């Protein structure tokens, strides 16, 4: 299926499930009314669960990237996120974005563990970029073994589209926790270091801006003392670029339910 076909199919699937939810709710209410009068006790109606995705927002999945991985073609980064209500707010008039694809395993108690995350800061055509980086992050993130088929039932996948990049600034505090992702670069002994955190990282970790910057500098490869980060930033001609991100994600079970629906309604 093409990306456009997937989008159209997902919209139809969500509408179909929404109608089923309304029918189930209405049926439950009618059954409750019928039974309450003679039996004297209510029957609770529950709606059918449907596949769901993260709403598009200016926040993204948590992510980081080391200097050894960042390039115009791809970057590796840890990340995590959760799933919520369906959304069809993706700006489909625009088809090229910088993006990251994240794979997590989700335990029965909801704990997420990173299994791969690679992306690019270069705007790529969405259909090609999503397909390419989904495979790359699943099988070529050298921090992990390739994801085996046995992990499929516990997987979640998340896409973060990056936008609203600022001009470089020398002020390391010129960003907002929970809103902006940041990319930093600085020089030590003639070598330029760089690294990034996607918008949700600092907020999810409970960091201050200073703590986030120190962590990000260490992610880039700096191993100085925490008390010397500001001097290293100043002497190393540090620069910061802030950006925003839109995140969307899906659990394997949600994908499987949608896929079953597609196969059920597709022509033979």
Automatic annotation (TrEMBL):
Domain AMMECR1: 55-259
Low complexity biased stretches: 44-88
Gene3D superfamilies: Hypothetical protein ph0010, domain 1, Hypothetical protein ph0010, domain 2
SUPFAM superfamilies: AMMECR1-like (SSF143447)
Chain positions covered by the region annotation Disordered: 1-91
Top-rank lineage group of the source organism: Eukaryota
InterPro entries, alphabetized: AMMECR1, AMMECR1_dom_sf, AMMECR1_domain, AMMECR1_N
NCBIfam families: TIGR00296 family protein
Name by which UniProt lists this protein: AMMECR1 domain-containing protein
Biological source species: Meristemomyces frigidus
């Amino acid at each position: 299926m093409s990306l456009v076909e997937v989008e159209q199919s997902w919209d139809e699937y969500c509408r179909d499930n929404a109608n089923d939810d309304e029918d189930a709710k209405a049926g439950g209410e009618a059954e409750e009314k019928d039974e309450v009068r003679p039996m004297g006790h209510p029957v609770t109606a529950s709606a059918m669960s449907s596949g769901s995705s993260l709403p598009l927002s200016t926040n993204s999945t948590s992510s980081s990237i080391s200097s050894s991985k960042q390039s115009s073609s791809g970057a590796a980064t840890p990340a995590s996120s959760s799933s919520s209500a369906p959304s069809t707010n993706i700006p489909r008039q625009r088809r090229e974005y910088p993006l990251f694809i994240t794979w997590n395993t989700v335990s029965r108690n909801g704990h997420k563990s990173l299994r791969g995350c690679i992306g690019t800061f270069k705007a790529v055509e969405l259909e090609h970029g999503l397909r390419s980086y989904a495979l790359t992050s699943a099988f070529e993130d050298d921090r992990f073994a390739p994801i085996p088929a046995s992990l499929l039932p516990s997987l979640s996948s998340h896409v973060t589209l990056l936008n609203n990049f600022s001009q470089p600034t020398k002020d390391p505090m010129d960003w907002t926790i929970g809103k902006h992702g940041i990319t930093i670069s600085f020089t030590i002994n003639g070598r330029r270091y760089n690294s990034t955190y996607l918008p949700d990282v600092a907020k999810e970790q409970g960091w201050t801006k200073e703590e986030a910057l120190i962590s990000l500098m260490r992610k880039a490869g700096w191993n100085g003392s925490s008390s010397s980060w500001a001097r290293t930033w100043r002497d190393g001609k540090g620069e910061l670029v802030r950006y925003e991100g839109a995140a969307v994600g899906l659990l394997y079970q949600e994908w499987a339910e949608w896929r079953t629906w597609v196969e059920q309604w597709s022509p033979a």
